[in-house]
Design goal:
Blueprint: H1 2-13, E1 26-31, E2 37-45, E3 49-54, E4 57-62, E5 66-69, E6 81-87, H2 89-92, H3 95-106, E7 109-117, E8 120-127, E9 133-141, H4 144-152, E10 158-161, H5 167-175, E11 187-199, E12 208-209, H6 210-218, E13 235-239, H7 244-254, E14 264-266, H8 269-278, E15 282-287, E16 295-296, E17 299-300, E18 306-307, H9 311-316, E19 322-328, H10 336-344, H11 348-356, E20 366-368, H12 373-381, H13 389-399, E21 403-410, H14 420-434, E22 442-448, H15 455-476, E23 486-493, H16 504-510, E24 512-517
Parallel strand pairs: 6-9, 6-10, 12-17, 13-14, 13-15, 22-23
Antiparallel strand pairs: 1-2, 1-5, 2-3, 3-4, 7-8, 8-9, 10-19, 11-15, 11-16, 11-19, 17-18, 20-21, 21-24, 22-24
Helix pairs in contact: 3-11, 14-15
Length: 518
């Protein structure tokens, strides 16, 4: 009876929607000690688990614990893992094929690539010695919209997304029994990108206020002379309305306001980049990863601080418009090969592939305090009664000799919920602790806030957030030795701003928890 109860529990935990055996046939699964058995119709087998329709309902059983008999039993040696990724070309055009190829090489598998029609490409991974087909990965390029639609329609197993799902996409996924796609365990950050404004190389405007950029994109400013540029009309260049990054940009920058009338739409970021480079009056909004011929414009706040999208500022989210690239998975068990592929994507080997493909990787970098002179200079220049110089001396005393890790934690709209990239940072930092990468060292979780409110209140808020992040990392690192690494907390409130608080985006990126290594 314990066997059947365990099977029922597994069935509740793992809903398998994988390719079923065709046709489905009867099987009997017997425990290896012969004490218990269950019979039914084999619904699917993923190389690791059987899913059987029985008199008790659908049950999921670990193949290592049972012996299968009957006409429906699969050939364990001939099993092929099959799964399909669908969605954004930002991921699927170059990056995912490169990652599949690298994963195949790492496992010593032969890779062949064929077009299967209807926008689907099949990657077949075979054993080099015997030619046995091990896995077949489908890759369908369309849009982030289409990726989520394919998942709901059971035409895909993994979504390639250049944005987080919209409310209606979350609702449809829940209704289809795919789980809550907004949960961190359903979301896998593969690489980082950013939304950046670009102009032609010789354009006289050297930087843009955020408010002015939004006004240009909306068409509220239509002539460059309003920004001390030439007396000439502005031509706006955007990605297609169904492009995931364009949708993310519209939501974060434009809200419900439509873009400027007459804005030119481009099918992809590289095409937009070339078009803006040829347009002396153009302003484009595109991907950092696709910026080649055009020139990125720095963003400035009301206090004059400049922010440029670089590898470092994208990793730390010190640049305000970071755009992670995601894979979304349903709340059902994927084939073992697919799960191993998802794990591989977080490895240093895979992240080197990400970097070579032109994106920002997820690997942690270190930034010594001495390389952060601009931030310290800004803090000293704005020191006053709320943040006296004595507080800045305390900051330097605590952080002197330490290095800032690019793993930074930020919160959605100033709330206590971490954003998507920060959730990924929690998992990555926990893995590093479990691997012993910081043994014998001290990690300091340092909380900062915006300048709204009293300094004493801000320091308390900053400490609360720093403690919450430290506790989340500690709870996730279940296999780490708690005595091997000291986890400390410090809080400085508004003492070290990255941007100006005069704007909403400035306050948002100032509210953060940094991680320093000593």
């Amino acid at each position: 009876m314990r066997f059947l109860i365990r099977a029922a529990v597994l069935a509740a935990l793992f809903h398998l929607g994988l390719p079923a055996m065709a046709p489905a046939q009867d099987v009997t699964l017997t425990s290896r000690d012969g004490a218990f058995a269950v019979s039914g119709t084999l619904l699917s087998f993923d190389g690791e688990f059987y899913r059987v329709d029985t008199v008790y309902g659908p049950l999921t059983l670990d193949s290592q614990g049972v012996i299968c008999t009957g006409p429906g039993c699969p050939d364990m040696e001939a099993y092929v893992a099959r799964f399909t990724l669908s969605g954004s070309p930002a991921l699927g055009a170059v990056l995912m094929p490169a990652l599949i190829e690298a994963h195949a090489a790492r496992r010593g598998l032969q890779l062949t690539r064929t077009a299967a029609g209807k926008g689907l490409t099949l990657f077949r991974l075979s054993d080099r010695e015997h030619g046995h087909l091990v896995a077949e990965i489908g890759l369908r390029l369309g849009s982030t919209d289409e990726g989520f639609a394919d998942l709901v329609a059971e035409e895909a197993d993994i979504v390639m997304a250049a944005r987080e799902p919209f409310a209606q996409e979350l609702r449809r996924a829940r209704e289809a029994g795919l789980g809550d796609l907004s949960q961190p365990e359903r979301r896998h950050v593969v690489a980082l990108d950013a939304i950046v404004p670009v102009v032609a190389p010789g354009h006289p405007v050297q930087a843009l206020e955020i408010a002015d950029m939004i006004a240009l994109l909306r068409g509220d400013i239509t002539d460059w002379s309003a920004l001390n540029g030439p007396e000439a009309p502005v031509s706006v260049h955007l990605l297609g309305a169904r492009d995931g990054l364009q949708q993310a940009a519209a939501r974060r920058l434009l809200g419900d306001t439509p873009p400027a009338e007459g804005a030119r739409r481009h099918p992809d970021a590289r095409t937009l980049d070339r078009a803006v480079a040829r347009d002396p009056l153009g302003l484009g909004l595109t991907r950092h990863s696709a910026t080649r011929a055009a020139r990125q414009l720095p963003l400035i706040g009301g206090c004059g601080m400049r922010l440029l999208a670089t590898r470092e500022t994208i990793k730390t989210e010190d640049y305000p418009f970071v755009a992670p690239l995601f894979l979304y998975t349903p709340a059902r068990r994927l084939p073992l090969f697919a799960r191993e592929f998802l794990d591989y994507l977080q490895s240093p080997t895979a992240q080197l592939v990400v970097r070579r493909a032109g994106f920002v990787d997820l690997m942690r970098d270190r930034i010594p305090l001495r390389q952060q002179g601009d931030r310290l200079a800004q803090a000293i220049s704005t020191a006053g009664t709320e943040v006296p110089l004595s507080e800045l001396k305390r900051l330097v005393r605590i952080l002197d000799g330490a290095e800032r890790l690019t793993s930074t934690f930020r919160f959605r709209n100033g709330a206590t919920e971490l954003d998507a990239q920060s959730h990924a940072n929690v998992a990555a930092l926990a893995r590093a602790l479990e691997a012993g990468l910081f043994n014998g060292r001290t990690l300091i979780f340092v909380g900062f806030t915006d300048g709204a409110g009293a300094a004493t209140v801000n320091r308390r808020i900053a400490r609360d957030r720093a403690e919450a992040v430290r506790d989340a990392v500690r709870a996730r690192a279940t296999a780490a030795d708690p005595a091997a690494v000291a986890l400390r907390v410090a809080a400085f409130g508004e003492a070290l701003p990255i941007a100006c608080d005069q704007s909403d985006w400035g306050g948002l990126i100032n509210r953060r928890v940094e991680v320093w290594l000593r």
